[in-house]
Automatic annotation (TrEMBL):
Record PANTHER family: RNA POLYMERASE ECF-TYPE SIGMA FACTO, RNA POLYMERASE ECF-TYPE SIGMA FACTOR
Domain RNA polymerase sigma factor 70 region 4 type as annotated: residue spans: 105-155
Protein name, as recorded: Sigma-70 family RNA polymerase sigma factor
Gene3D superfamilies: 1.10.1740.10, Winged helix-like DNA-binding domain superfamily/Winged helix DNA-binding domain
Keywords annotated in UniProt: Coiled coil, Sigma factor, Transcription, Transcription regulation
Domain annotation RNA polymerase sigma-70 region: ranges: 11-78
Superkingdom classification of source: Bacteria
Listed InterPro entries: RNA_pol_sigma-70-like, RNA_pol_sigma-70_dom, RNA_pol_sigma70_r2, RNA_pol_sigma70_r4_t2, RNA_pol_sigma_r2, RNA_pol_sigma_r3/r4-like, WH-like_DNA-bd_sf
Organism (species): Mucilaginibacter dorajii
Family, per entry: Belongs to the sigma-70 factor family. ECF subfamily.
Pfam families per UniProt: Sigma70_r2, Sigma70_r4_2
Chain coiled-coil ranges: 74-101
């Protein structure tokens, strides 16, 4: 048990920041992202004995996190979430410095993307290697590069729309 706890602690420390960013990209809300982070790592703890090293552990954890986020989003009322995300982004924007304001705006733009696009761009922002992102998202690496290019274009358009407001 002590060995499992030590392994889990190491896994948590190595992956929790990236998983939080992923969850935040889905929700746009610190509290919800923290809840999803905890839920993800609870599932990691419960299933650690079942991990077979067929993929990198970080890829396995990303898959758990993505499934946890998607389940959360399906259970949320979509319209209420969008309104809440907008209100939170507005409130937070007033609290941020200019640089943090840009980061908050980026996350607001990310929250407007489709679910599959959100996970991919969040992983890119966390500097996850492309082969691992391809593995997590279930698409080929070549296809992934095209998708990332298109997502970046879409994000640039969204960002520029908000900048003009």
């Amino acid at each position: 048990m002590a060995n499992k706890e030590a392994a889990f602690k190491q896994i948590y420390e190595a992956n929790s920041k990236k998983i939080f960013h992923l969850c935040y990209g889905y929700t746009g809300d610190d509290d919800a992202a923290n809840d999803l982070l905890q839920e993800t790592f609870l599932k990691v703890w419960q299933n650690l004995d079942k991990f077979r090293n067929q993929a990198m552990i970080s890829t396995w954890i990303y898959r758990i996190a993505v499934n946890t986020c998607l389940t959360y989003l399906r259970s949320e009322k979509r319209q209420a979430k969008d309104e809440l995300t907008d209100q939170i982004a507005e409130t937070k924007r007033e609290e941020f410095s200019e640089k943090n304001e840009q980061v908050a705006l980026l996350y607001k733009c990310i929250s407007k993307l489709e679910e599959s696009e959100r996970i991919i761009i969040t992983l890119v922002l966390d500097e996850v290697p492309y082969p691992e992102i391809a593995d997590v998202s279930g698409i080929s690496e070549g296809n992934l590069r095209v998708k990332i290019y298109r997502i970046k274009q879409k994000l640039t358009e969204l960002y520029n729309q908000y900048e003009r407001l």
